Amino acid sequence: MSWEMLLWLLALCALLLLVVQLLRFLRADGDLTLLWAEWQGRRPERELTDMVVWVTGASSGIGEELAYQLSKLGVSLVLSARRVHELERVKRRCLENSNLKEKDILVLPLDLTDTGSHEAATKTVLQEFGRIDILVNNGGVSQRSLCTDTNLDVYRKLIELNYLGTVSLTKCVLPYMIERKKGKIVTVNSLLGIIAAPLSSGYCASKHALRGFFNGLRTELATYPGIIVSNICPGPVQSNIVANSLSGEVTKTIGNGGDQSYKMATSRCVQLMLISMANDLKEVWISEHPFLAVAYLWQYMPTWAWWITNKMGKKRIENFKSGVDADSSYFNVFKRKHD
Question: Which GO terms describe its molecular function (predicted)?
Fold first, then answer.
């Protein structure tokens, strides 16, 4: 075979590889590093078994589904949120669908905004199980309101709950991980902690703050390679997060979550989260297109990202004002084009 022929074959292989990667990206529901870990990485059922996992926001949505899937892996669970009756419901289902016993699941009511209670809650977990292997910071609330229609109290609540509450609980757990020189701090952030969108200025601010805090914390823990700090950034997921979102007043929520069918199934989001936790990934993006593509644009081509975000943002506001889910229409258009 001549050198010229060999070069042509190499060029053809490179082109085919590029086409395959493009096709994979068009059908991706997570960043490519995460999907590679799903294919070739460590398995959650091997890496997470027998660990003690504390999940906040465990009464619904991602936190609830995470509790169910973790229970099947044989972990010891601490379930925290404000609504005790909902936590008890989640606990019962975990026991029904797994081999866990009553002693393996602790229901621990927790208000993230009551930072004075976090140290006592941490000691309760340690007294019950002796250690905390994984802290999953999942508690929080979203927002659906224009800045000009939003009271300052709403912004204060978003920062106190989403950001300061999470930082406070992390600071209570971290010394014990440092003492053991190992542990995982997993924070459920959002794609809106990477990009930005109208109707969610306060929510974006709280999530960008979280990303900055945990990225900074990771650098401070460089001398403790056994302590892993992970940011999980989901896009739209089927849950009650929109229905429970704050509106322009801190005492009012949206109440109607709208159509959820176009969003990623919560079970798939949590499946990818467990892959991330098992493989110690520092940051993952979990979303279908077009939101995943927009996240990549924000990361690598911000000028184009601003232009597209402004176009999408206008439609988002129109949807909200007409009473439908803010993100539904252009998501469904993309799905129809690629089905």
Answer: all-trans-retinol dehydrogenase (NADP+) activity; carbonyl reductase (NADPH) activity
Rounded to whole angstroms, how far apart are CA atoms 61 and 270? 10
> Whole-prediction pTM value?
0.91
**CA pair distance 222, 317, nearest whole angstrom:** 42
What contacts 3, CB < 8 A, 6 or more positions away?
Answer: none
Residue 337: predicted pLDDT:
47
Which strands form 134-137's sheet, in the order they lie side by side?
105-107, 76-80, 52-56, 134-137, 183-188, 227-234, 283-286
* Catalytic-labelled residue, pool 68, 155, 163, 203: 203
- The verdict on residue 323 lying in a domain is no
What mean pLDDT value characterizes the chain?
A: 92
CATH number for the domain harbouring residue 198 = 3.40.50.720
Answer yes or no: is 322 within a domain: no
Asked if 224 is an active-site residue, the reply is no
